[in-house]
Design a protein that fits this description.
The protein is of the alpha/beta class and 232 residues long. It has a single domain, classed as Alpha/Beta hydrolase fold, catalytic domain (Rossmann fold), CATH 3.40.50. It is built from 6 helices and 8 strands.
Protein backbone atom coordinates (compact mmCIF):
# COMPACT_ATOMS: atom_id res chain seq x y z
CA UNK A 1 0.00 0.00 0.00
CA UNK A 2 1.34 3.43 -0.92
CA UNK A 3 0.57 6.78 0.69
CA UNK A 4 1.90 10.32 0.71
CA UNK A 5 3.31 11.48 4.04
CA UNK A 6 4.13 14.92 5.36
CA UNK A 7 7.47 15.17 7.20
CA UNK A 8 8.33 18.09 9.47
CA UNK A 9 11.78 19.65 9.06
CA UNK A 10 14.27 19.37 11.91
CA UNK A 11 13.77 23.00 12.89
CA UNK A 12 9.99 22.67 12.75
CA UNK A 13 9.70 25.58 10.34
CA UNK A 14 8.35 23.65 7.37
CA UNK A 15 7.32 20.30 5.98
CA UNK A 16 7.81 18.28 2.84
CA UNK A 17 6.12 15.31 1.21
CA UNK A 18 7.34 11.76 0.91
CA UNK A 19 6.15 8.72 -0.98
CA UNK A 20 5.60 5.80 1.41
CA UNK A 21 5.17 2.15 0.47
CA UNK A 22 4.06 -0.16 3.26
CA UNK A 23 4.43 -3.93 3.35
CA UNK A 24 1.73 -6.34 4.34
CA UNK A 25 2.00 -6.82 8.09
CA UNK A 26 4.58 -5.31 10.43
CA UNK A 27 7.63 -3.86 8.64
CA UNK A 28 10.98 -5.48 9.32
CA UNK A 29 12.54 -2.00 9.28
CA UNK A 30 12.27 1.27 7.38
CA UNK A 31 14.43 2.27 4.41
CA UNK A 32 14.78 5.86 3.21
CA UNK A 33 14.99 5.84 -0.60
CA UNK A 34 17.09 8.79 -1.75
CA UNK A 35 16.24 10.16 -5.16
CA UNK A 36 18.37 10.73 -8.21
CA UNK A 37 18.49 14.24 -9.69
CA UNK A 38 15.18 13.42 -11.40
CA UNK A 39 13.06 13.74 -8.26
CA UNK A 40 10.67 11.21 -6.75
CA UNK A 41 9.66 9.92 -10.15
CA UNK A 42 8.09 6.65 -11.23
CA UNK A 43 11.39 4.79 -10.98
CA UNK A 44 12.01 5.85 -7.39
CA UNK A 45 8.44 4.98 -6.44
CA UNK A 46 8.99 1.56 -8.02
CA UNK A 47 12.11 1.13 -5.89
CA UNK A 48 9.96 1.83 -2.83
CA UNK A 49 7.29 -0.63 -3.94
CA UNK A 50 9.88 -3.38 -4.39
CA UNK A 51 11.30 -2.77 -0.92
CA UNK A 52 7.78 -2.98 0.51
CA UNK A 53 7.39 -6.36 -1.19
CA UNK A 54 10.53 -7.42 0.70
CA UNK A 55 8.91 -6.43 4.00
CA UNK A 56 10.28 -2.92 4.50
CA UNK A 57 8.54 0.38 5.02
CA UNK A 58 10.03 2.46 2.19
CA UNK A 59 10.03 6.26 2.34
CA UNK A 60 11.19 8.52 -0.53
CA UNK A 61 11.35 12.15 0.64
CA UNK A 62 11.00 14.98 -1.88
CA UNK A 63 14.45 16.50 -1.35
CA UNK A 64 14.01 19.16 -4.04
CA UNK A 65 10.97 20.65 -2.30
CA UNK A 66 12.71 23.92 -1.45
CA UNK A 67 13.49 24.43 -5.15
CA UNK A 68 10.25 23.05 -6.56
CA UNK A 69 7.90 20.57 -4.86
CA UNK A 70 6.91 17.44 -6.74
CA UNK A 71 9.68 17.26 -9.34
CA UNK A 72 9.34 14.20 -11.59
CA UNK A 73 11.68 14.05 -14.57
CA UNK A 74 12.54 11.45 -17.21
CA UNK A 75 16.30 10.98 -17.74
CA UNK A 76 15.69 9.71 -21.27
CA UNK A 77 14.16 13.04 -22.36
CA UNK A 78 16.98 15.50 -23.04
CA UNK A 79 15.25 18.72 -21.89
CA UNK A 80 14.19 17.01 -18.67
CA UNK A 81 17.70 15.62 -18.15
CA UNK A 82 19.13 19.12 -18.56
CA UNK A 83 16.57 20.52 -16.14
CA UNK A 84 17.60 17.87 -13.61
CA UNK A 85 21.23 18.96 -13.93
CA UNK A 86 20.16 22.54 -13.26
CA UNK A 87 18.24 21.50 -10.15
CA UNK A 88 21.22 19.51 -8.89
CA UNK A 89 23.41 22.59 -9.23
CA UNK A 90 21.00 24.59 -7.08
CA UNK A 91 20.39 21.89 -4.48
CA UNK A 92 21.95 22.42 -1.02
CA UNK A 93 23.22 18.97 -0.08
CA UNK A 94 23.94 19.89 3.54
CA UNK A 95 20.31 20.91 4.03
CA UNK A 96 19.26 17.80 2.13
CA UNK A 97 21.01 15.66 4.75
CA UNK A 98 19.00 17.44 7.44
CA UNK A 99 15.82 16.52 5.56
CA UNK A 100 17.02 12.91 5.40
CA UNK A 101 17.57 13.00 9.17
CA UNK A 102 14.04 14.36 9.53
CA UNK A 103 12.84 11.41 7.43
CA UNK A 104 14.74 9.00 9.69
CA UNK A 105 13.12 10.63 12.72
CA UNK A 106 9.72 10.35 11.04
CA UNK A 107 10.22 6.62 10.52
CA UNK A 108 11.34 6.05 14.10
CA UNK A 109 8.99 8.37 15.95
CA UNK A 110 5.83 8.70 13.89
CA UNK A 111 5.84 5.24 12.35
CA UNK A 112 7.49 3.23 15.11
CA UNK A 113 10.20 1.54 13.05
CA UNK A 114 13.25 1.83 15.29
CA UNK A 115 15.69 0.37 12.74
CA UNK A 116 16.19 2.53 9.65
CA UNK A 117 18.43 2.19 6.62
CA UNK A 118 18.82 4.19 3.43
CA UNK A 119 19.48 3.52 -0.23
CA UNK A 120 20.33 6.15 -2.80
CA UNK A 121 21.11 6.49 -6.48
CA UNK A 122 23.35 8.97 -8.36
CA UNK A 123 23.07 12.16 -6.29
CA UNK A 124 21.26 9.91 -3.82
CA UNK A 125 24.28 7.62 -3.73
CA UNK A 126 26.44 10.54 -2.66
CA UNK A 127 23.81 11.53 -0.10
CA UNK A 128 23.74 7.94 1.20
CA UNK A 129 27.46 8.23 1.94
CA UNK A 130 26.91 11.58 3.64
CA UNK A 131 23.99 10.09 5.58
CA UNK A 132 26.26 7.29 6.82
CA UNK A 133 28.78 9.88 8.01
CA UNK A 134 26.44 12.54 9.40
CA UNK A 135 23.31 10.87 10.78
CA UNK A 136 22.28 8.03 13.08
CA UNK A 137 21.21 5.76 10.20
CA UNK A 138 21.64 2.04 10.88
CA UNK A 139 22.85 0.95 7.42
CA UNK A 140 23.34 2.67 4.05
CA UNK A 141 23.66 1.69 0.39
CA UNK A 142 24.75 3.97 -2.45
CA UNK A 143 24.61 3.28 -6.18
CA UNK A 144 27.06 5.07 -8.51
CA UNK A 145 27.69 7.82 -5.97
CA UNK A 146 29.35 10.92 -7.37
CA UNK A 147 32.22 12.92 -5.86
CA UNK A 148 33.04 10.57 -2.99
CA UNK A 149 36.75 11.38 -3.32
CA UNK A 150 35.94 14.84 -1.97
CA UNK A 151 34.15 13.37 1.05
CA UNK A 152 36.80 10.90 2.22
CA UNK A 153 37.70 13.25 5.07
CA UNK A 154 34.39 12.24 6.67
CA UNK A 155 34.99 8.49 6.55
CA UNK A 156 36.00 8.17 10.20
CA UNK A 157 32.50 9.31 11.17
CA UNK A 158 30.95 6.27 9.46
CA UNK A 159 29.95 4.10 12.42
CA UNK A 160 27.42 1.76 10.80
CA UNK A 161 27.61 -0.42 7.67
CA UNK A 162 27.81 1.22 4.26
CA UNK A 163 27.83 -0.48 0.85
CA UNK A 164 28.70 1.34 -2.38
CA UNK A 165 28.07 0.01 -5.90
CA UNK A 166 30.57 1.49 -8.38
CA UNK A 167 29.94 1.58 -12.14
CA UNK A 168 33.27 0.88 -13.80
CA UNK A 169 32.64 3.00 -16.90
CA UNK A 170 30.73 5.78 -15.14
CA UNK A 171 30.61 8.98 -17.18
CA UNK A 172 30.31 11.01 -13.96
CA UNK A 173 32.90 9.11 -11.86
CA UNK A 174 36.21 8.66 -13.66
CA UNK A 175 38.80 5.96 -13.04
CA UNK A 176 40.92 8.25 -10.87
CA UNK A 177 37.98 8.95 -8.60
CA UNK A 178 37.15 5.24 -8.38
CA UNK A 179 40.77 4.49 -7.44
CA UNK A 180 40.62 7.17 -4.74
CA UNK A 181 37.45 5.57 -3.34
CA UNK A 182 39.19 2.22 -3.06
CA UNK A 183 42.37 3.72 -1.59
CA UNK A 184 40.38 5.63 0.99
CA UNK A 185 37.73 3.07 1.90
CA UNK A 186 38.97 -0.48 1.26
CA UNK A 187 40.44 -0.74 4.76
CA UNK A 188 37.38 0.74 6.50
CA UNK A 189 35.77 -2.04 8.51
CA UNK A 190 32.25 -0.64 8.01
CA UNK A 191 32.45 -0.06 4.24
CA UNK A 192 32.02 -2.55 1.38
CA UNK A 193 32.69 -1.58 -2.25
CA UNK A 194 31.46 -3.53 -5.26
CA UNK A 195 32.74 -2.81 -8.78
CA UNK A 196 30.78 -3.37 -11.98
CA UNK A 197 33.33 -3.25 -14.85
CA UNK A 198 32.14 -1.76 -18.12
CA UNK A 199 28.87 -0.49 -16.64
CA UNK A 200 27.76 3.12 -16.91
CA UNK A 201 26.03 5.44 -14.48
CA UNK A 202 22.41 4.51 -13.84
CA UNK A 203 22.70 0.80 -14.60
CA UNK A 204 20.23 -0.14 -11.84
CA UNK A 205 17.48 2.30 -12.77
CA UNK A 206 14.09 0.62 -12.92
CA UNK A 207 13.29 1.68 -16.48
CA UNK A 208 14.88 3.41 -19.44
CA UNK A 209 17.94 3.11 -21.63
CA UNK A 210 20.45 3.26 -18.78
CA UNK A 211 19.33 -0.02 -17.20
CA UNK A 212 21.37 -3.21 -17.42
CA UNK A 213 19.21 -6.08 -16.26
CA UNK A 214 21.98 -8.47 -15.24
CA UNK A 215 24.03 -5.90 -13.35
CA UNK A 216 20.94 -4.43 -11.70
CA UNK A 217 19.89 -7.88 -10.49
CA UNK A 218 23.38 -8.56 -9.11
CA UNK A 219 23.60 -5.22 -7.31
CA UNK A 220 20.06 -5.36 -5.99
CA UNK A 221 20.63 -8.88 -4.71
CA UNK A 222 23.71 -7.72 -2.82
CA UNK A 223 21.74 -4.81 -1.38
CA UNK A 224 18.97 -7.15 -0.26
CA UNK A 225 21.47 -9.43 1.50
CA UNK A 226 23.12 -6.40 3.09
CA UNK A 227 19.84 -5.09 4.49
CA UNK A 228 18.84 -8.55 5.73
CA UNK A 229 22.13 -8.75 7.61
CA UNK A 230 22.01 -5.25 9.10
CA UNK A 231 18.33 -4.30 9.34
CA UNK A 232 16.56 -7.62 9.64
Amino acid sequence: MSTTASITTLDGAGSFSAYQARPDGTPKAAIIVIQEIFGVNAGIRQKCDKLAEQGYLAIAPDLFWRLEPGVELDPDVEPEFNRALDLMGKFDQDIGIKDIQASINHARNALGTSTVGCIGYCLGGRLAYMTAARTNIDASVGYYAVGIDGLLGEKEAIANPLMLHIAGDDGFVDAETQAAMHAGLDDHDKVTLHDYPGLNHGFATETGVRRNDAAAALADGRSAEFFTAHLG
